[in-house]
Amino acid sequence: xxxxxxxxxxxxxxxxxxxxxxxxxxxxxxxxxxxxxxxxxxxxxxxxxxxxxxxxxxxxxxxxxxxxxxxxxxxxxxxxxxxxxxxxxxxxxxxxxxxxxxxxxxxxxxxxxxxxxxxxxxxxxxxxxxxxxxxxxxxxxxxxxxxxxxxxxxxxxxxxxxxxxxxxxxxxxxxxxxxxxxxxxxxxxxxxxxxxxxxxxxxxxxxxxxxxxxxxxxxxxxxxxxxxxxxxxxxxxxxxxxxxxxxxxxxxxxxxxxxxxxxxxxxxxxxxxxxxxxxxxxxx
Length: 284
What we know:
Elements: H1 3-26, H2 31-52, H3 56-77, H4 83-93, H5 101-133, H6 135-148, H7 150-166, H8 170-196, E1 198-202, E2 211-212, E3 216-218, E4 221-223, H9 232-241, E5 244-248, H10 254-270, H11 273-282
């Protein structure tokens, strides 16, 4: 069965395109956009289930939404995703094609795998662009962290060397090389954050959900940095002070959602579910 998913896929694609444009322009995705995607997906599943007299279509939509609700919160509280990204993931969970409990596992894991694979490549390209635009500041921060983390390089070299000496299979060679590069990646990310992703912003330009770099004292009250970002009430307090605030910007990640959803749609709607699953299994 594919026809019942055509509307869901094209509606979700339209929503994700709008979310991508909004994320690139404003670094946020509106709640109404994410919540309306969930509402439309579940309402459609409900009406279709009543029409055909089979409620499994609605049931698996609810289960998909529930599973991605849990995953979205895990990614949000571990700071992998911003709030808008986590809510968009929940909406996609209500859209993806689940026709059995095995589909619930395979399709969900497949989408997360594709999302993080595409997201990793996209993030590297995006950060290289940021470094190019802030070369001077990045070099200064990178050299500073390179010197202060020299002990981390020594430990990494020792561990990777031991693995290469005693375990010479292909997998362990890959792990050894990865361990050797971990300190370099760590320093790269630290330097990137300090030189390219922290900005001094006028309080009047703050938006709900902005991440503070440091706690700020306003009168007798301290506004603490939080995974939830700034609330409207906290922004109002900061605006009254007229201060400029250090804000940590994230990478606009919704384009990775768009690319991943297009890949999922191609394999499921164009090639069919069996070919889609066979292709995914061939990757492992």
